[in-house]
Design goal:
- InterPro entries: Flavin_Rdtase-like_dom, NADH-dep_flavin_reductase, Split_barrel_FMN-bd.
- It comes from Nocardia uniformis.
- It holds the Pfam family Flavin_Reduct.
- The protein has 2 helices and 12 strands; from the N terminus they run E-E-E-E-E-H-E-H-E-E-E-E-E-E.
- The chain is mainly beta and 153 residues long.
- The strands form 3 sheets. Strands 3-2-6-9-10-5-4 form a 7-stranded antiparallel β-sheet.
- It is globular and about 35 Å long.
- The chain has a single domain (6-152), classed as Roll (Pnp Oxidase, Chain A), CATH 2.30.110.
- Strand 2 and strand 3 (18-24) form a beta hairpin.
C-alpha cells in the first residue's frame, strides 16, 4: 500500500486527559446524504482508547506547507500538543490546528473493529474551508513512506 498516494489528515479530539491527535492517511468520503466520512486507527495507536470514547472529532486536511504538523502528530503522544501556538479549541471542545486549509468536525456515528484497526465513521456537522485564501493550499500527500507535494510525484 506504500505505492498508493494518499492525502494526509490529522484527527484531533478532546478527552478527559486533554487533547488527543494523530496523523491519518486513511480518510475517505463515505456518503453525501447524510454527510459521512471515515478513517482508520490502529489498535496499537496511543490514541485508540481516547478515540473509542470520543463523541466527536476534527479531521484536518493538511496543506503542502504543513509537513511539520504531519510529522509532529506521528511522534510520541506527549509531544503533539506541546506548542500551544499551533492550535486552539473550538467552542465544542475539540482542538483545531491553525493554518489548515480545510477541516471538518464530525460526531462519531459508528465504530467498526476490522482486523488490527477500528474504522471510524463520522457524521459531518461543520466544514471550515480556507483553501482559496491560503497561498499554499495544495494538499500534502503521503507516498512510499514519505511526504510529497502534488507536483513532486
Amino acid at each position: 500500500m506504500r505505492h498508493y498516494p494518499a492525502g494526509v489528515t490529522v484527527v484531533t479530539l478532546n478527552s478527559e486527559k486533554g487533547p488527543v491527535g494523530f496523523t491519518a492517511t486513511s480518510f475517505a468520503s463515505v456518503s453525501l446524504r447524510p454527510p459521512l466520512i471515515s478513517f482508520n486507527i490502529a489498535h496499537t495507536s496511543s490514541s485508540i482508547e481516547a478515540m473509542l470514547r470520543a463523541e466527536s472529532v476534527v479531521v484536518h486536511f493538511l496543506g503542502e506547507h504543513q509537513q511539520h504538523i504531519a510529522q509532529r502528530f506521528s511522534r510520541a503522544a506527549e509531544e503533539r500538543f506541546t506548542d500551544r501556538s499551533l492550535w486552539t479549541n473550538l467552542e465544542t471542545g475539540e482542538p483545531v490546528l491553525h493554518g489548515t486549509p480545510i477541516w471538518v468536525r464530525a460526531t462519531v456515528h459508528q465504530l467498526i473493529e476490522i482486523g488490527d484497526h477500528t474504522l471510524v465513521i463520522g457524521l459531518v456537522t461543520r466544514v471550515h474551508d480556507d483553501a482559496e485564501e491560503l497561498p499554499a493550499a495544495a494538499p500534502l500527500l503521503y507516498y512510499n513512506g514519505t511526504y510529497h507535494r502534488p507536483e513532486a510525484l
